[in-house]
Predict the 3D structure of the following.
Amino acid sequence: MLILPKWWQNITQEELTRYLTTPVPPPAEEKTKSISRRSLDVEFAFYRRDRTILSNIDELNKWPDKQPEVISDTERIIAMPNAAHVLICSKGFAVREVAVKGMVGLVDIGDVELNTSRSSTIKWDVEEFRNRVIEMLSPQIISALDALMKEPNIPSRFEFLADVCEAYGYEIITNTELKWISIIKPPGDAILISPDELRKNISEAKEILLIYGGKSDPWNSYSICRKRFSEASDDAIIIPISSDG
């Protein structure tokens, strides 16, 4: 089988996640050799056949269409908020697996100083890598968040949105047009608004009540606020914030 250089640039996201998460049986001519997962040459990618990350994730815990990703000559990283699996390679050879929150993929860092067992890199900054990739992914993630406006039930995505915020930073979730923020306006209407709409409401409101905690859902927030802030006006906007995210 001919394995082209940078094969991982052109395969599907499903195939890439399969490669990164499935043990590799050696090719026929290598059956008598012991091949470790960490030292395996990445050319054996297409021998992976078992489960995949992407297809096994619940529909509410991933992006509805293609997952946001970064592809270059040296790396391919998919934005998956609930995953953390990046394979570090040096000139085509797997060196180390690193848990990077919200990212699945591989990166070839070229010439690199390895430890004596060739199982770990020296002077490779995972935080610098993570911050750089998040900066590149951010426009795509924001666009993917905007696309969630087509979802039939945004509240069913609240747990996923909390994971997105945790993985990529609160700036991501505050720059989307998605209506994901719950507010209660007189005479008791619970509505979802976007971050920009929230800023506008805050700038125009005379009084705002924030309620935080496990029971702070739209259905009981009003009564809780009235018990705690009896002096609040009837025109106050109520913003319930669940402790569950």
Notes: The radius of gyration is 23 Å.
